[in-house]
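Summary for the funding panel

The consortium committed to producing paired sequence-structure records for every protein in the target list. Below we show the first two records in order, beginning with the earlier of the two.
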Amino acid sequence: MSSEKKPSVVIIGAGRLGKGFIGEVFDKANWQVIFVDKCIKVVEELRTGSYKVRITGEKEVSTREVSNYQTIYSIGSKEFEKAFLESNLVMIPVYPEDLDEVFTDLVPSIQKMYEEDSNKKIDLVLLTNQIGLVEKLYGLLQLNVTKELYDWIQDHLFIRDSIIRRSTDASSNTSLNIHSIAIASLLIEKPIHVSLKNVDWMETVGEVQKLKKLKLFMMNGPHAAEAFMGKYKGYNDILDAQNDSEIAVLVEKVTNEIYSACKVEFDLDTEKINSIIKLPEENQNMHDSTFRIAFDPIRKLAIEDRLCGPIMLAEKNKLNHIYLDKAVAYGFKYYDKEDPNAVKLQEEIKGKGIFSTVQSVTGLEDNVVCRIVEEYEKL
């Protein structure tokens, strides 16, 4: 008796999130998992045979070993092209700055799909905290393909955004031992063209752009403030930062300012806000590194991101943002030699001065920049 063919998922980006969350849940659901990464060290480590995920749930901690997967080095390979054509879903857990390269490299495989399986419809799910990428990536594809192919893409290739509410951590992106906190599902923009009913921690929702911005501000904003101030005070573990009374006060005030701005801007009631951001209380106190949370301050201090985005909303709605200004100031104090953009940020401050750096990185109005600089100079 022949067995039914497994559905397959191509995961572009086999780092912490790709392995520790996406790969693990699809493997558990009995999908064929295919990892793709441009880092040869990541691929070589995965080819040793298996990796382990320690999963912290609401009531227990368990460990799963994942071994039934395929690994591919480079999107440009023939091996990838075959996997892409046969896949039911593509998940893309990479940094926002890598997405242009990913989608440019995907063009030959998209062309091949059009030529060989033109009736197929496939979803490509982005896993990043950055907002507004879908339209940009369709524009990138339009510039790199013929009009005929782009017309087909619009009806057959669906770039979907998502809201990440699950933390994964490891010593490096090559590590085969990963910690994942399983307390909230991935929210994927609907509709999608494949069933995920047997895949844990996956949920399709509408209004993703609004809800993603809400999540980024309400969850990632206070978390970033905690990490930036925590690093400033010498903490490496976020739990140690949380237990510092001075940091706890800042985070509470930042959370209140963000909540006030979001409630007015998005016209959402408390129940709707909590449905996106509220996590089980017993799982709020999880070990995580301040380095991971503070990593890439240039992106995290940008105009529409987790701290300056709420400042913009507060300005628009004539609300206070004193503690958000303080949190951003701590962001400009953040330094770690292992974080390239933290090094770059400090070099820019040294070369251009703090006012010009805050102005260029955040894009905020000069009067707001002045208040942030005032807080920075108190530190």
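The next record, for a separate protein in the list, is shown here:
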Amino acid sequence: MKCLINPKLRRSLLLLTPILFLALLSGCGGKTVSAAGSGGVNMPEVAHTATERPTQQLTATKSPVSGSTATPTPATSRTPAAATADWKSWPVLPTVSAEMQDVYRLGLEKGNDPHAFSVLGDCQSLPEAFLGPYDSDPSTVAALPDYLQETVDNFSGSFDRYSPTVKDGTTAGALLWGEWNDNKEKQCQPGETPLDCELRVHRPSIVIIHIGTHWETRNYRYLTIIVEKIIEHGAVPVLATKADNRELDERVNQDIADLAQEFDLPIWNFWATMQHMPNDGIYLNSTWELTDEAKEIHRLSALEALDAVWRAVR
């Protein structure tokens, strides 16, 4: 499908040119964080057939200054886009627009690593619960089809590694807050946010946004800032839907669909892979935790999504 470049994406591409990609899964136990309005923080709280998403352009908002550590401004209430109301029928695997392919190429010219991807997420994104076995367990890799083994080989070292952007309780706001950065490997600069440090140190060419359920109104604004920073870095953001519906009205997945539409981003519709599972792949005594079988599907589906994006941009 040929798409017009929307104003936000055009601005991000222009930021790159002079120098030459939810899964939002269910939230985990433990503390979560969301950056508050100015100057503070609040601590509380399966079909794979491709179909086209309708084209929509939304009103652009101002991008944050590159490298800024200022607290994001909360958004006002937002009306979901009518064009994305059918997100449940979207395919599981992402497609990549020509504009995102350009972002990827410009990022390589800036020095991004074509063999590196990053994950932004909570406890269900930790390597041991998610993609780590593709680095640590040869038998898991050997059981994959050849094309996915090729993908694992290309991104070797990115599956089972420490990242300041993966931590129990992480939310979109936390990724933009320097104090949330535990900096375990001492590679981050003083006050550097988890997101800024990850982009600078690991230099990924693809970024999977895999943050836990957090449905405050301002969350959409935080996700917008994250997407803009990733595009400015020259990586392709990959959004994902989630399996659970802790918020009871599916607003989180709707937000993800709207954001994907707004920026013409690849979206991994993980929700669709769980619809054949009892209780949508979630333990009956939990509102978010995936069963062991669901975790296996989750891991493989994420690898297939990474493979689809990589093959589209390389």
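Regarding this second record: The longest helix spans residues 292-313. The chain is about 35% helix and 10% strand.
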